[in-house]
Amino acid sequence: MPPLLRCARPRQWAKNVLVFAAPGAAGVLDEPDQLLKTVLAFVSFCLAASGTYFWNDVLDVEADRAHPTKSRRPIAAGEVSLGLGRTMGVILPVLALGAMALTGSWKAVLVVATYLAVTLSYSAVWKHIAVLDLIAIASGFVLRAAGGAYAVDVPMSSWFVLVTTFGSLFIVTGKRYAEARELGDGAVSVRSTLGEYSERYLSFVLAVSCGGALVSYCVWAFETKEIAASDLPLYELSVVPMLAAFLRYALVLDQGHGAAPEEVFSNDRVLQLLGLSWVIIFGLAVYT
């Protein structure tokens, strides 16, 4: 993969499928115009995320050079200049806002702008403040889901927002937990907040966020079932793969993995099977 493309981190684009969550749950993805708007939202967040990755690598170039794996990033390795990194960090966010504007929703554009502001300020400020760094990253996932909802103008229930919030916090905290265990005594030199987190504290946050996500999802699923008035218990059945997926990911973390969540999801066949099972069950519940 060319160095410039590696800086954009296309593997991370998988996170942006969250924009399909609200439209999918609302049952509008079978409408061509709504599907097109959702795809535009996905492209917008991919461009926005890649732009912020360029700035992140520019600002963290010295810390990355001290990291066992991040030192291979193109900017840290000298394959991409700092000047080019800054240029791409300006161009891509502008294109992201333009792509979202094509959906015709100013609220969706505002969500992308907020995402850019939060993510860029994270690289400069929030990543150095314990707890706020977790919240800042988790909010990025919530904004992705909100962007998809506003792009097609469908409502998000309070329980849907809570599922996204707690689920995001679980993934983000799991990443910190895995990094702390993997880097050991050298963790502070790579990420300053890891010096303030103990494994016990991160385990506590993992337990709270996992429980919050599962309870919120159960309430959302049963509430949606009542509104849909379906005779088949598909919404209720979707709780099973969701619960299993959280427990499986918790096991992966306990085994010392999870510092790179995208690699876990791309390599763990059980998680992939559970994810596919959930998509099929929930999809049948919404579209049948």
From TrEMBL:
Keywords tagged on the record: Glycosyltransferase, Membrane, Transferase, Transmembrane, Transmembrane helix
> Record keywords: Glycosyltransferase included?
yes
Q: Where are the transmembrane segments?
A: 76-102, 132-150, 156-173, 201-222, 271-287
- A Gene Ontology MF term for this entry? transferase activity, transferring alkyl or aryl (other than methyl) groups
| UniProt cross-references to InterPro entries, sorted A to Z | UbiA_prenyltransferase, UbiA_sf
Q: Where in the cell is it found?
A: Membrane
Q: Which Gene3D superfamilies match?
A: UbiA prenyltransferase
Q: What is this protein called?
A: Decaprenyl-phosphate phosphoribosyltransferase
Q: What is the lineage of its organism?
A: Bacteria, Bacillati, Actinomycetota, Acidimicrobiia, Acidimicrobiales
